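The protein record quoted for completeness.
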Amino acid sequence: MPHYLDDGFNGLLVDTSTSRALGEGLRRLLDVDDVADAAMGRRAQHLVRTTYSAAAMAQALADHYTDVVSRGPSRRLRPTPG
């Protein structure tokens, strides 16, 4: 999750490796006020809608295919005998 969740910006990362770390993370979560919570939620929704929606994923694939086609024919791997 750290590759798309920016701790404190669009969510909270909680270390779950030990019970102590988990407890500290949960305490940190409880300390988030309603304003900060709503702001993180809006940022997270924006990230999902612009990066992971069906339209965004379709555009990413279309861009990829356009890039592949623009490179021209590629060499196909030939199976080796035996």
About this structure: The first helix runs from residue 19 to 30.
